[in-house]
Amino acid sequence: MSQKETLKNHLRSLKFTKKKKKTPYDDSPLHVRMFFDSDHDAVHDAEHDAVHDSDHVSDRPKDSDRASHEHSDMYDEDDIFASLNGSNKKEHYRFEANRRYFTICVYAFFFVVASALAIFSITKMSAIRDAISHFLVIMSPFIMGIFIAFLVNPLVRQLDAVLFKKILRLASAKARRILSIFLAYILVIGTITMVFLYVVPQLAESLSELSSLYDGKDAGAILDSITNTLNKLEAYLPANYSSTISEKISSLLPEIIAYLSNIITGLLPLLINFSMSVAKFALNLLLSIAISIYILYDLRKLNKLLLRLTYSVLPIGRANSLSHTVKECGNIFGNFIVGKSIDSLIIGLLCFIILKIFDFPYALLVSVIVGITNMIPYFGPFIGAIPGILLYLFTGFMDALGFGIIILILQQFDGWVLGPKILGDSTGLSPIWVIFAIIVGGAYAGVLGMFLGVPVVAVIAYLSDRFIVERLKKKKLDIS
Fold it and tell me: What pTM did the predictor assign?
């Protein structure tokens, strides 16, 4: 038997597929490839021709023989000879990456993780809140240090650029940085020390002067005055009302004594806890100052590290956008805090000078209140005016009226002249959003929230605007 007949007989038993373009099924076993082959008719014709040739009907090649020969030339000869040689080499499917399915798997994974975290957060809300509070307490020196460095950094930059670079012409950038940080902290700590040495005693003196409004009456005299008032009212009360009051006081007296005894007993632990809290605060403050100094000294290295991390993870376009966005958010937050601090300091000084010129009492105490409350936009001057007006009502109605007029003038000057010059449009918020930020911030964080709520909402508004602009740009829309 010839080799050609042997091959055709083997084809009859194995049912090979013809050679065609490479597909993912070519690496599978032969019978599997036969199953997945779409050209079943061609294989059937090849087997039919092979049967006719084996019967030796005629030596003259027929059209079917020529067709069978053409089909046999299209078979994979390597697979045929490997089967004739008894090769049982096992072939496996190769893994082919599919970007679409991979993306779907990634989204599904993150959806499952987010859902699990959401369910866990809802069921373990109190435990998560306690863990976050404990973590914030531990990280409080670092958070305070970052905030101090954020506030002092503008002063450091000005000293570096103006004093040591332009005026003193120091060539070493490292030396300029060290001297700028040192001088900035000397100025800040010196200012705080002067406030405690001069302003705090003056405030204590003003508070002590308030006691003179009672014309030297002590607690006993005030109690006698209340007793005499009650005795005068006895004529207008029922006959047995005085005896009823005496019985109530007699019955409540042991409880009052026990309550006062408990207060005195718990006073020592309270003082110890207060002393520990003060010591802990002082330690955290020192650590925060030290951390802020190291942050300012290594600020360029930290910026470089963050930039390298950003550009290594994100594409260049996204990294540029993120870097620009973070810088703008920092400018919005920092410009508002620094600018509003300078604005409030100027308003407080002007209030003190005007009150001294018109010889108002308690000028320093009232001016400090006005300067601190002026940090709150819009409502700050009016909030600061309320304690002053109430205070001056004890000294005279004209003093209270005059102080109210002074505060109104200062508020108009701040809103129309001083504020725009210092702050400009640093937040970019409309008045309705400023009021919203003050109300929400005050509801959640008190006075500090009323002050910090405005820059936080300004940052959120800026990020929202950036997102909207990018989405509109992708849709090729211009809605201005």
Answer: 0.61
